[in-house]
Amino acid sequence: MDITPNPGPEYEFLSIFHLNIRSLRSKISYLEDIANDYDVICVTESHLDNVVSDDEISIDGYQLFRRDRSSHGGGVAVYVSDKLHVQRIHELENDNILCEYIWIKIVSGNTCFFLCTVYRSPSSNANFWDSLEYSIDTAVDINPHIIMVGDLNVDLLVQTDNRCNDLINRFNFTNVITSPTRVSRTRSSLLDPILLRECSSGMSDVIPIDSEISDHLATYVEILLRERSSGTYKRKVWCYKDADFLFLNSLITDYNWQNLFDEISDADYACEKFTEIFSSFVKQCIPIKQVTIRQNDKPWFNSDLRREIRIRDRLWKKAKSGSIHHINKYKRQRNKVNNMKKYARESFFLEVNGFIDTLSCQDSKSFWKLVKLLTKSSGKSSVIPPLLNDVNGLLENNDSSKAQILNRYFTSISNIDQGIEIPQLQMKTDTSLSFIEVTSDDICDILKTLFYNTFILPTLEYASEVWDGCSEGDSYKLEKIHHQAARIVTGLPLYTSIDSLYLETGWMSLKERREYKKLNLFYKIHNRMAPDYILDILPHQIQGSTPYNLRRHDSDYRVPNYRLRSSTLSFLKRKFRPDPVPSHFLVGNRKYNVILTRLRNCCSSLNADLFRVNLTRRFSLLI
């Protein structure tokens, strides 16, 4: 009888991508689209300098390492996933500005290797090869596992007698890229090799790139590893729409809670028992389903694209067998996925203005959800990188193991040495506070403050969100609730004027809160905290290179355009006017053109509000 051995951990691959991008700043959106497909992204000819900050070219979930050239052109940059333990090795880098390469140490599990991203200018001399050879020689003495990617500007298809081949032969490098990486009408050259030394690789190939992105083909390789963490996780959610609340109420009403509390004297155990019983009732009446949370997905990611990616991954597993048929099928599917990503992103950003315009009138909740999604700043990733276990000296990738390491660290630094005496502090005064009296008025004031912070303030925030998107009658009811809350907090009678209530509490009306939030949103856009497709809505005078003066312009008495007769006779209806947009403006492709025209002419309630508080000089600014 055959016995199947106990399987060990599955081998996984760490993917490395390289592209000669020729100006990283203007093409960062392309890297954001492909970021989830690769663990390490290397770019050459980044064309950056010290004027460009890391925030302008950062990618969520990735650490950035860069080396810029002080003059025009050149430069290299590397993005490494936060899931990897990585460290830059400055000792292997040369200070010469013409020696453009970055050395990075990457550790995953028990595997450690050095990654070198290099760019050689066609005008460089022999000093570049001498410096690179010395750097590789030093790196080999430290770690024999080396990966080198980049643009060497040496055609390895035809040139065999050169310094590059000497380095490959001396250090036993293997070039896994055999196809041309730069193709023109008259010549095909292999300028972007991937050189491996004592590293096991899986798939490696060139990737077609749009000519508007680069005149080079991209290269990638997959390095054999032991383990790899997933970017998704499972979560259980309640299905409140399918809940049976009548049955839940009956279960809660019929249960004898008094006997439970009479039998248990310990308050902690009684609370635990109550929670257990109540949770069992809830689980009987409210269904639970398990969902997959993909926190790294882009807003334009859809189910069709995810299905094609799964097909691509299945074909990739078959292509590892070496079959030419499976490899070609995998390449076709990979190119299809890349094209679908590009189309999905362009379609989303093309229609996002229409979504905003429609939702602002119909669904305020969805409107603000979309706006916050588009205007959020790209901060640092919340993923904790692998941590070194001080007990066994291994890198931990599991979340629970990381938590234990952090708990041990914080408890160790929070311990107080009992042998140290507390120093005697010199008294600054002879007066001391011996008695503190708390009156009933003090308690009432504290309760009112807690009532406002825990109940009223969140309610006002939500009410101000929905105020502009609901009917006039509902808006009036929300304002009445707002006024009643102010009377509860202040204790003032019903005949108190609304202005007195606002003066006493320091609040503002829901309409004013709404306008204030709009101005805050504009301020974020003005300070470039939003993507380009949101910034395009602004007139050029506001989004220019010089920051716009946000002080009030009380001396500007020019009549706004929307009060002039020329605006009344305009063929294009404006949003702030009471009469609706004619139906023939919303037919077919005409709808998209009308929306863009209205945005270019600043025909929105936001721009009118900005004019009234003197944040814009004119109401309508033609772009």
Automatic annotation (TrEMBL):
<protein>
    <recommendedName>
        <fullName>Endonuclease/exonuclease/phosphatase domain-containing protein</fullName>
    </recommendedName>
</protein>
<dbReference type="GO" id="GO:0061343">
    <property type="term" value="P:cell adhesion involved in heart morphogenesis"/>
</dbReference>
<dbReference type="GO" id="GO:0003824">
    <property type="term" value="F:catalytic activity"/>
</dbReference>
<dbReference type="GO" id="GO:0031012">
    <property type="term" value="C:extracellular matrix"/>
</dbReference>
<dbReference type="InterPro" id="IPR005135">
    <property type="entry name" value="Endo/exonuclease/phosphatase"/>
</dbReference>
<dbReference type="Pfam" id="PF03372">
    <property type="entry name" value="Exo_endo_phos"/>
</dbReference>
<feature type="domain" description="Endonuclease/exonuclease/phosphatase">
    <location>
        <begin position="19"/>
        <end position="216"/>
    </location>
</feature>
<dbReference type="GO" id="GO:0007508">
    <property type="term" value="P:larval heart development"/>
</dbReference>
<dbReference type="InterPro" id="IPR036691">
    <property type="entry name" value="Endo/exonu/phosph_ase_sf"/>
</dbReference>
